[in-house]
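Shall we go through a protein fold together, starting from nothing but its sequence? Please make up or recall a protein chain and show it to me in full. Go ahead whenever you are ready, and we will take it from there.
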Amino acid sequence: MKVKLNEEIKEYCNILKLKGIKTHFEEVISEAADYEDFLHKLLTYEMEEKDKRSIECRIRNAHLPYRQYIEDIEIDCLPVDMQKRLPELATLDFIEKGKNIIMTGNPGTGKTMVSIALALKACMAGYKVLFTTIPLLVTTLKESNSAKTLRYFENRFEKYDLVVADELGYTSFDREGTDLLFNNLSLRAARKSTIITSNLSFERWIGVFGDPTVTSAMIDRLTYKAILVDMEGDSYRLRETLRENGASIKSLTA
């Protein structure tokens, strides 16, 4: 009789999607001191399971290219400025304050990797996150504009707690793309956080946007109360590989 009852409980848990209770109720039966303790333990397991599902959902919806944990980053392989700033950035206080982060520097120094790590931590902390590239974002904006669904996209875009817009500088844009990008990043300015990565210094952004007035306005809007991180340095992957092999950058050029 008890076996049948337990099987029915498991079946009901499947139907109600109560994975935490299904997994632990038999264990809790033998441990609980009274009915209240029994119920509390079951609900605790269910809440933990719900939190796990919510985290996985946020990570999936963020469209991260891969999972990178801050704890796995070799901090001393990063550029000096990021080495100093990463512990503070990892608190995610910049999201609470609606601050942007602008990382500029030569390719391969860890800009994308650090951005993904911060985005992943934000997902795990309960924030709504989107990872995209600047070229993909501009393409999406132009397609939404053509399909007359731009306002719907803008409503969603401005509500993300954190947007990572990677790879500014790899392609240039026409006036429509530039205006759409400026308008949508402006919607988030001083309210929601955006991380921008670029392999170009600010004075070279005019090559991306073309018009000096628009470029100046874009820089002014994005950098207002922003955290600027200098990512000039040696390749992160190369430094990590050399470190594992007991070598250094200098040994390659000696």
Notes: The longest helix spans residues 35-62. The chain has two domains: 2-61, 63-244. The domain at 63-244 is CATH 3.40.50.300 (Rossmann fold). The chain has 13 helices and five strands.
